[in-house]
Every structure is written in C-alpha cells, then in structure tokens.
C-alpha cells in the first residue's frame, strides 16, 4: 500500500534563527537612517529657512507676550528684503543687552536642549537676541513726536494701532528724537512704547541705536505657542502707506 503522507514543510522560524536576527538588524538600521535623515533635514531647515524663538520680555506687548514662541523666516533679509512694519529678530548690535550669566544645566537636560535646538524646537540663545518692529529703513527720516503725539517717517505721520501706551498717554514715545537711518541699518522700536529699550535708548552703543542689517536673523512670521495664541504677525502695510512715495 502506497503511503500518501506528504513530507512536513514547516515554515515556522525559531526565535533565535539567523533570518529573524537579520530582519531585526535591518529594521534597526532603517530606523537609524530615517532618524539621521530627518535630523539632517531639520538642521538644514533650522539653519537656512526657519527657526523658533521664545519671547523673554514684555517689550513687544501686546503683540507678543512673555514666553510666546514664534517662527522666524531666516530668508529675510538675506534673500528677501524686509519692510517697514516687519517684526524682526536680531543679534545684539552691542550694548543693548546686559551680560548674561552662564546657564547651568545638568548634562541630560543640556543634551536634550541641544538636540532640540538643532532641529529648531528649542531656542537656548533667545536671551542673546532681541525682537522689535522696523520703523525706519536706510535713508528714512524718523521723527517723534508731532502735536498729536504721532511719529513720522519721511514727513508722513503714522497712526500705529499696534503701539501700546500707558493709560492717559497719547504720545507714541516718551522721549523725542529726530534721526536719519544710515545705509544698511534699521531703526527699530518695541510695540510696548514706554517699556522697550530699543533704538531710542542706545545712542552711545556701537551702532548709535541703529541695527546693522547683517545682525538681522529673520522676520517673525507666526506665534506658534501657546496654541490659543496661534496667529500670523501683521506688518501693518496700511500704517506705512505713502512713506514709499515720500522717500522717492
């Protein structure tokens, strides 16, 4: 009698089989490649395109509040020119910020903070930068204040809805000034006009209160955190309408 029993052909792999170990190794390798590529892309984006900063002071209230996080477009002004009304982040031109004590962190927190900063999720150098609104571009004549308390640029008075003033005050600056912005520089002011150490208050600093264009990191685009404050930052083109014609 013929035995019709088929040979057993089990495809079950043993837990420690070479094929399974090789599959796990390939999986781990692919994960590492994906992680490294993602880290590299994030680094390139953070270095050349956009990055995050947090707001350390109240000088831009009520547009920006302390501890708000913002996304900054680093293509401006490197490739795209900035405009009057833009909110910009810039490195200290010298003498604007007090000396900062070294930040003490335990090694684990420091390593995590560094990793997050590489991909743009943390901004440990925010305290080394400032954020203000551009009022004057190179060549602009900026004066404050007229009889209505307004500032003017190239003889055009500005009506500034973003400027925060103390109750009862009508002048957009506590102190008068009359300046012409030098070449390749900016005149910047905080929206919280009576609580902002901006271009008005650094006449004896290296740049005499003006911010070199090379110090500008980029233009602030959006409030990204906290979520309930998510919004685009307006550059108020209507405020400066007519200034361009006046400076021609």
TrEMBL record:
Keywords: Hydrolase, Membrane, Protease, Transmembrane, Transmembrane helix. PROSITE patterns: SPASE_I_1, SPASE_I_3. InterPro entries: LexA/Signal_pep-like_sf (IPR036286), Pept_S26A_signal_pept_1 (IPR000223), Pept_S26A_signal_pept_1_CS (IPR019758), Pept_S26A_signal_pept_1_Ser-AS (IPR019756), Peptidase_S26 (IPR019533). It comes from the Bacteria. The chain crosses the membrane at residues 24-45. It is a single-pass type II membrane protein. One of its GO terms (biological process) is signal peptide processing. Its EC number is 3.4.21.89. Residues 29-225 form the Peptidase S26 domain. It catalyses: Cleavage of hydrophobic, N-terminal signal or leader sequences from secreted and periplasmic proteins. The active site is at 59, 132. Pfam families: Peptidase_S26 (PF10502). It is found in: Cell membrane; Membrane. GO terms for molecular function: serine-type endopeptidase activity; signal peptidase activity. It is an enzyme of class 3 (hydrolase). The keyword rRNA-binding does not apply. GO terms for cellular component: plasma membrane. PANTHER family: CHLOROPLAST PROCESSING PEPTIDASE, SIGNAL PEPTIDASE I. Belongs to the peptidase S26 family. This is Signal peptidase I. It comes from Cryobacterium zongtaii.
